[in-house]
Specification:
This protein is an alpha+beta fold and 560 residues long. It contains 13 helices and 17 strands. It has helices spanning 50-65, 93-107, 138-150, 161-172, 209-220, 224-234, 249-279, 300-308, 329-334, 340-347, 362-441, 444-460, 517-527, and strands spanning 7-12, 16-24, 30-39, 71-76, 82-88, 115-124, 129-137, 154-160, 180-185, 190-196, 199-205, 287-291, 311-314, 465-473, 500-508, 536-539, 547-555. The strands form four sheets. The chain has a five-stranded mixed sheet, with helices on both faces. Strands 11-10-9-12-13 form a five-stranded mixed sheet, sandwiched between helices. It has a four-stranded antiparallel sheet with strand order 14-15-17-16. The longest helix has 80 residues, at 362-441. The relative contact order is 0.10.
């Protein structure tokens, strides 16, 4: 929670910037003071210039709306963020960060030093901890934050759009206990946010408003911009079956395209609901809330009400958030489906929110900390100069006394000779202790070898697979040597026992579809110089509807 008198919230979407100014209200709420929604106007061939377009668009909003620059909280599209919900065994609080860091290395599909990541505990029981991981490529978030800073704003934190939307929904509908599904249909992606008492789950779908625009462009052989305008002016979701036409052939064709895309989205939503219920232990949604620009296509609410058989409403982020009289109510109503995220961002300044992810890059944090310390550093520099001047005067005064004290120091030095002899004896004792330490340091390579084993496993693990558990198996019983006479000692008793590990893993069926994937993984392990050809598959049951399991007995090439 951040404490500010004025709150600037910036939602950086794929096609538009939503910027809003809030003022802290009573009871931890916020009040909308000013806002604007402005398209980026970024063509696909200019994607490498996204940062410049963001800077220009924000500057245009600040200038046209008369908003003063200042500290800002920002959020990025959920499409750019990798999120994963994992279950961990219960551990002490001081070890949670360590085990989550290990899980992040296992789950994030990029080198961990190339991403900015954070986590949130979203539930716990005596048996497990529910953790949400969020990670974004470092170069992506740095482009976004530097673009915001170039526009004159000072980024305070970086949130994720669906998580900010969840905070806004929880604040505006605190009495929701049954499972509620928030569907945020944007331009490039659709974010699903499952809300349930003590539980949250987020997933992004690739089907969204641009999918409709692209199909219109192909159907009518027009440019993307022309197709987007046709969608804005004529689109609605057609009814199923035989129904009376509402317009000309072009409008009807667009309506059928909308229904086709919404049908694909419905299939993806059903799949996500099944995953949420099966893998996350959630309930079937009793209510669906629509938001986002694509959800404003007429007939969308009726379509999902018919398909899912649940209550369908549109999300109002201002149900418990007042709007100042100076704000154009008609404009706010027209954009109400686009402002949920900025409300969630503003609440981060006044409340402790259910999800508080921060993906601010370390470089930006360091620059911000340096700017905050600049006045202190200047004052410290002046203090150093003053201190040196005082010491110089003191030194000149003391120089006259140096000769008088020299003889006294010589006498004290002779007294210290006895201490020197004592120190010599202590040095001999230290030498003996160092010998003992050297023997202990020999254990270091063994620890490093285990780290090499774990790193090799992570490197060889295919996409879509992960390791749930690693345990060491007991060494196999050694056969008796029949060529050694009784009573003989000091002879070679054979090689050390093999080190065997049991790896229990899982894989997504939709990413690892082949039954031979585990076999190929075993062969890859055998090919590694760290593992023996004795490595074998212990168990590979038939795959389930969502994931498959496997156990591999991993034999190390050398003993640890």
């Amino acid at each position: 929670m951040l404490a500010k008198d004025r709150i600037l919230a910036v939602d950086i979407g794929n096609h538009a910037i939503k910027l809003a100014e809030f003022a802290p209200g009573k009871g931890g709420t916020v009040e909308l003071v000013n806002f604007a929604v402005e398209a980026l106007g970024l063509a696909s061939e200019d994607e490498h210039l996204r940062g410049q377009y963001i800077t220009t668009t924000i500057q245009s909003i600040l200038r046209e709306r008369g908003i003063r620059p200042g500290p800002a909280v920002i959020c990025v599209s959920g499409q750019n963020v990798f999120s994963r919900f994992v279950k961990l065994p219960p551990v002490d609080k001081d070890k949670i960060a360590q085990i989550v860091a290990y899980e992040a290395q296992q789950n994030v599909p990029f080198p961990i030093d190339e991403v900015v990541w954070d986590y949130q505990l979203i539930g716990s029981s005596e048996e497990e901890l529910d953790v949400m991981l969020a990670a974004i490529k470092g170069d992506i978030v740095e482009v976004l934050t530097r673009a915001v800073a170039s526009a004159g704003l000072s980024p305070e934190l970086v949130d994720v759009a669906p998580m900010a939307l969840y905070n806004a929904a929880r604040f505006n509908q605190p009495e929701t206990h049954d499972c509620t599904l928030v569907v945020d249909a944007g331009g490039r992606s659709t974010d699903l946010v499952f809300m349930e008492a003590g539980r949250v789950f987020i997933r992004s779908l690739p089907v969204a408003g641009n999918t409709i625009t692209q199909q219109i462009a192909r159907e009518f052989e027009v440019s993307f911009d022309q197709a987007e305008q046709m969608k804005i002016e004529r689109a609605y979701v057609a009814l199923g079956g035989v129904y009376k036409s509402k317009g000309d052939q072009t409008t009807e064709a667009i309506a059928k395209i909308c229904r086709s895309v919404m049908t694909r989205m419905h299939a993806e939503i059903n799949r996500s609901i099944s995953f949420y219920r099966g893998q996350q232990g959630g309930s079937k949604p009793a209510r669906l809330i629509l938001t986002g620009g694509a959800s404003m296509i007429p007939g969308t609410d009726r379509f999902f009400r018919d398909k899912l058989g649940v209550e369908v409403d549109y999300f109002n982020p201002f149900e418990n958030v007042p709007i100042r009289d100076s704000v154009d109510t008609e404009e706010a109503t027209a954009n109400i489906c686009r402002l949920g995220q900025v409300v969630g961002l503003a609440l981060r300044n006044t409340l402790t929110c259910p999800i508080e992810i921060n993906l601010m890059p370390d470089t930006i944090k360091a620059q911000k900390a340096f700017r905050q310390r600049q006045p202190l550093l200047i004052a410290a520099g002046a203090g150093v100069v003053l201190t040196l001047a005082v010491w110089w005067g003191f030194y000149r005064q003391m120089a006259g006394l140096a000769e008088q004290r020299f003889e006294k120091v010589n006498r004290e030095a002779q007294a210290l000779d006895g201490l020197q002899r004592q120190l010599s004896r202590i040095g001999q004792e230290i030498t003996a202790i160092e010998g003992d330490v050297e023997s202990l340091l020999d254990l270091g390579p063994r620890r490093a070898a285990w780290l090499d084993v774990l790193e090799e496993l992570r490197r060889l693990l295919p996409d879509g697979m992960w390791i749930r558990r690693i345990e060491r198996l007991p060494a196999p019983a050694q056969q008796a040597r029949t060529d050694i006479a009784p009573g003989m000692t000091g002879m070679d008793e054979g090689p050390p026992p093999e080190v065997r590990l049991l790896i229990s893993g899982m894989a997504w069926v939709d990413q690892v579809a082949s039954d031979t994937a585990v076999i190929r993984f075993r062969d890859t392990l055998r090919a590694s110089p760290l593992f023996s050809d004795n490595t074998q598959i212990r168990r590979q049951p038939p795959p389930g509807p969502v994931m498959r399991e496997f156990d591999i007995e991993l034999v190390l090439e050398s003993s640890l």
